[in-house]
Amino acid sequence: MSAATSTAPPGRAPARPAVPRRRGPRPARVVLHVALTLVAAAFLLPVAWAVFTSLRPYEETARKGYVSVPDTLTLDNYRTALQDGQLLPFFLNTVVIVVPALVVTLALASMAAFVLSRFSFRLNLPLLLLFTAGNLLPPQVIITPLVSIFRDVPLPGVLSSSGALFDSYWGVGLVHVGFQVGFCVFVLSSYMRTLPVELTEAARVDGAGVWRQYASVVLPLCRAPLAALATLQFTWMYNDFFWALVLMVTGDKRPITSALDNLRAGFFTDNNLVAAGAVLIALPTVVVFVVLQKQLVGGLTVGATKG
Amino acid sequence: MTTTAPAPARTPPRAAGRRRRPGVAHLGRRDTAVLAAMLGVPLLLSLALVWGPALLSVALSFTRWNGVGELTDAVPVGLENYRQVVTNYPPFWPALQHNVVWLVVFLVLATPTGLLLAVLLDKELRGTRVYQSAIFLPVVLSLALVGFIWQLVYSRDQGLLNAVLGTDVDWVGDSSINLWAALLAASWRHVGYVMVLFLAGLKGVDPALKEAAALDGAGEVQVFRHVTLPSLAPTSVVVLVITVIEALRAFDLVYVLNRGRNGLELLSVLVTDNIIGEASRIGYGSAVATILLVVSLGVIVPYLVVVLRERRGAS
Questions:
Q1: Which tens digit of pLDDT belongs to each residue from A182-211?
Q2: B138/A43 Cβ within 8 A
């Protein structure tokens, strides 16, 4: 995409006066803006509704109905959700699972991508396809055997209170790595292929082994795709619901997204609290979206633009 | 996006040098070992955690096994599980039907809507970033959370929809409409995903081509049909694959809404029910998982062929 954008934009603005394009008449523009504003508002509505509901005391909505002009707006529901609902430990579970999984995924994927993109050997392409395809499988395809394998892999009690890979942070982290490495290898190898061969060739002539070629030459040039992937993978791993739901049975160990399910059954008694909980849980990814939108979109669309 | 996005795949950086990538034959023993480890560890993880279990799912689908004990205790039963699933497992056909409906709605409504929005927003339009952000926002939310948020809309007594319409419909509970309610929520997220993919693809369309066509008197629709659409072909392949895969993967949303029952059965739910549900029948679950695998490979393999062709062409 970056190549596409870097070649295209310079032409756009200056080209316009030279080649007067037939633009739609003004009213057409107005109609377009009105339509797009309505569409955008419709897309924001469910989230806005959640925020609105979360800010209202339950007593008032019970009395006046949910669709009503608010008398009071308060953060009380958030306080209740965080304190009584004990959301913080679940957020911590997410951090414990996602941060190491993210780092390991990117490290391993960049190594595999380096080998696959900078050297040619017979299994080059088949292996790349294997990585890529693995990430596209629906998780349900592999979950049944995975559960019994994870049950059979023992872990010392120090590492996991369940004594096995099943029902442990390790297991969920590991499956994130195994599943997401494929996507990252795909993205990183297509980026590394575009770096000139001469770069590593020069390092090799200077006596650098393959590890130094990787760590000191190629990797520092991959900051952009790594940042994009880190952003995207954080969102994906944070948003995972399925792996932790099936691979963990202890509710208290679950990361925040999977804990939603317990919380609804036990704690979220009214819609105002549900709304507050939903907004709190959405917050990290929405912040990432607002701050790192470019990286996020860049990571998401990388496979879509290669012509 | 210009500076940060990866994969400047369109530039032909090797055109000048045209040097081949080095082979591995001349490498020293140490370098070979390092390379083997760098590739081997991630490969092993991918095989052990994805491909191995996928094959095991297929194997288990031809056996009877109680799900505890050793995998070697599984008794081969041939096609019995498949026969049972299609004849004697009531949720199977509804689930299959719902997956098909899901896919058709995505293909016919959600994906084209995303394309339309991308085309409208690709123009030089004031505030286009704001529109894009609003439509993209749901994509960063998990499907489970999407379920939660839409519950606030669909809730019978406390929801937005019934309050506004003045109705008393059980949007999630009524099995004749809950699939459509779930699909609206799922599409809410899918449209933004598709839009952002097509927007990226549209950035790659050469504006000079469009200008030329416009100069030759082509109207906007004609320019779109004959210039824009053909250059979106690679993007469309990716979008198509993602659409099918998302339709097969759909699970979190219905599970949050009502555990995927009573009108919201999906193949993915059946697989999961047979592991963590009460009446777990590993053979049934594995048979359904194998069906999912075959269908997904049906789109993954053609996609990989496209990727492969591009790679060959590029190097």
A1: 999 999 998 898 899 999 989 999 989 999
A2: yes
Q: Domain of B190: which CATH number?
A: 1.10.3720.10
CB-CB neighbours of B242 under 10 Å: 22
pLDDT score of A306 more than 70: no
Q: What is the per-residue pLDDT for A303?
A: 59
Choose the closest CB to A50 out of B134, B149, B196: B149
Domain harbouring A269, CATH code: 1.10.3720.10
What amino acid is encoded at B304 in this protein? L
Q: Is B224 on the interface with A (CB under 8 A)?
A: no
Q: Quote the ipTM score.
A: 0.88
CA distances from B12 to A122, A193, A218, A222, B218 (A): 24, 11, 18, 18, 31
What tens digit of pLDDT does each residue of B83-137 get? 999 999 999 999 999 999 999 999 999 999 999 999 999 877 888 999 999 999 9
**pTM score, two decimals?**
0.88
The answer to the question of residue B7 being in a domain is no
A vs B: CB pairs below 8 A: 427
For residue B205, the Cα-to-chain-centroid distance in whole angstroms is 25
B314 touching chain A per CB within 8 A: yes
Asked whether residue A231 is domain-assigned, the answer is: yes
Question: In A, which residues are within 8 Å of B67 by CB distance?
Answer: 148
Task: Decide if A53 is inside a domain.
Answer: no
> How many Cα atoms occupy the beta-carbon half-sphere of B42 within 13 Å?
34
Judged against a pLDDT cut of 50, whether residue A75 lies above it is answered with yes
Distance from the B85 Cα atom to the nearest Cα atom in chain A, whole angstroms: 16
Domain holding A114, by residue range, is 89-304
A190–B30 CB contact, under 8 Å:
no
**pLDDT beneath 70, residues of chain B:** 1-19, 67-69, 278-279, 312-315
Residues 100-159 of chain B whose Cβ lies under 8 A from any Cβ of chain A: 117, 120-121, 124-127, 130-131, 133-145, 148-153, 155, 158-159
Contact criterion met (CB below 8 Å) for B6 and A187? yes
